[in-house]
Design goal:
This protein has helices spanning 2-21, 26-38, 50-79, 82-98, 110-121, 133-136, 155-160, 176-189, 202-211, 219-232, 234-243, 270-273, 275-279, 315-325, and strands spanning 103-106, 126-130, 147-149, 168-171, 194-198, 215-217, 251-257, 282-287, 294-295, 308-314. By secondary structure, the chain is an alpha/beta fold. The chain has three domains: 2-79, Orthogonal Bundle (Helix Hairpins), CATH 1.10.287.70; 100-223, NAD(P)-binding Rossmann-like Domain (Rossmann fold); 235-325, Alpha-Beta Plaits. Strands 3-2-1-4-5-6 form a six-stranded parallel β-sheet, sandwiched between helices. The protein is elongated. The mean pLDDT is 84.
Length: 330
């Protein structure tokens, strides 16, 4: 914008100078300004006076400086990413206005990276909010258009991420106070949003819950507990590693809702569905809105509306189940 301003100022200066020094009419002064700026060398309106030649010489020299600055600015926009940033901002503005039921991840540090990786693998629609320049450089190119650069503690940035239309927000910032503030703001802007927040200790966890967080995760506490249980409960930890995809065995935990099932498989018992023999997956538990999570449900359990199945299987068996029992696109 500064380069354009200089260019306009140069045109005004040229027109004014020729009108004052040579007594040109406006159209004549405009003509002289244009041919001088463009250096095309057309015939002058009339012979220039000595003062007119001095003005023209200085005018040409000054415009060479302005032209060089303009070229430098354009080069920066085109080759150093400024134009891409503008296009990205424009595309983001259009995209963010239309997206709904997405997930917002605040921070792309150690915890944020893991959260984003899992969401991407689950094909969830997400936006990342990050303000640290060095951290932004670590974000994969495939996610660049999902990044909002700014401070997640501000209403403006959360609104730009579509907080009112989001399904959930995960705040992983290293500062607990920031996570508390984000939780408060998110709950105010969207009373129905699910908030998952990181905390470094139990006191911060209590504050986060009072601020509106649905779930509080303390990575340090979980890490220490996990390391101790490798000694005290090694086979339990081995099972958990399998379920969390951190072992060599590629087993997957999957949630299947009543609405995911094809109509002909709804309101059927687990015995009738016979997932184990038909696809190889095992039903570990079921959850509905009124009852607590039930593990290893009986074969007579009927899959009714509101029930969510938790199933375990390898990638092949999960794919077989989806193909055979679920609606297309579920």
């Amino acid at each position: 914008m500064l380069a354009v301003g200089f260019s306009l100022m140069s045109i005004v200066t040229g027109i004014s100078g020729y009108m004052l020094i040579e007594n040109y009419r406006f159209t004549e002064a405009l003509y002289m300004t244009v041919i001088t700026l463009s250096t095309v060398g057309f015939t002058e309106v009339k012979q220039l006076s000595e003062n007119g030649r001095v003005f023209t010489s200085l005018y040409i020299l000054s415009n060479l400086v302005i032209f060089a600055y303009l070229i430098s600015t354009l080069t920066t926009y085109i080759f150093e990413g400024e134009l891409n940033k503008i296009l990205k901002s424009f595309m983001q503005g259009r995209e963010f206005k239309n997206v709904r039921n997405h997930i917002i991840v605040c921070g792309f540090g150690r915890n944020g990276i893991k959260a984003v990786s899992e969401l991407v693998n689950s094909k969830e629609r997400l936006f990342i909010i990050e303000r640290n320049e060095s951290t932004l450089e670590t974000i994969p190119d495939s996610l660049k258009y999902n990044v909002i650069v700014g401070d997640a503690t501000t209403d403006e940035i959360l609104n730009s991420a579509g907080i009112q239309r989001a399904r959930a927000i995960i705040t992983t910032l290293p500062n607990d106070a920031d996570n508390v503030f984000i939780s408060l703001t998110a709950r105010e802007l969207n009373p129905n949003i699910k908030i998952i927040a990181r905390a470094s200790d139990e006191k911060s966890g209590q504050k986060l819950r009072r601020a509106g967080a649905n779930h509080v995760v303390m990575p340090d506490a979980l890490g220490g507990l996990h390391m101790a249980q490798i000694i005290t409960k090694p086979y339990v930890i081995e099972l958990l590693n399998v379920l969390n995809n951190v072992s060599e065995n590629e087993y997957i935990l999957e949630e299947i809702t009543y609405g995911d099932l094809r109509s002909e498989f709804r309101n059927k018992s687990l015995r009738e569905l016979d997932f184990r023999n038909k696809t190889g997956v095992s039903v570990l538990g079921i959850k509905d809105h009124e009852a607590a999570l039930r593990f290893t449900p009986g074969a007579g359990t009927v899959i009714q509306e509101g029930i969510v199945l938790i199933v375990l299987g390898n990638r092949e068996s999960i794919q077989r189940m989806k193909k055979q029992f679920l609606m297309k696109g579920a």
